[in-house]
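Encode chain A's predicted structure.
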Amino acid sequence: MRFFGTTWVHHDGGYVLRRVAVAAGSLAAAVAGCLVLRFAYQGLETARVGGFVNLLVIVTFAVCSAIAFRKTWEGFSRRPADPARDESLRSLRMIGFIGALLAYFFRSLAEAPGEELRRGEYETALAQYEKRRGTRTGNPAARKKPKRK
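Encoded structure for chain A:
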């Protein structure tokens, strides 16, 4: 929702253009990240560290990217049950940044990332507001008090 402001509420104010820009930007960032990782891998090959280390680096980035993708994707539809545990996975998400960027890209193809979560919260808050507002009958001090017999 970072790039959308309140345009997601009524899908106005350049909402579609912003979604396209976010999708293109996240995909471009993911491709750039892959290129950087490729250069790092070439550095490992040049250093001749061995097949085990090369395999370990590939597996590490693949697993971290998968975890980052899953956690980012889940974060678009619901709040974390345990924020402390989610915070402890921050380093895994940083290592697997490509997975997080790809999750952002795929979600932005359908909606603004996080729109489903925010729309649910917005509609709930709006319904609660209408319920509270509807039960009010005006100024309570101006009400007539019943006469005592």
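DSSP finds seven helices and no strands in the chain.
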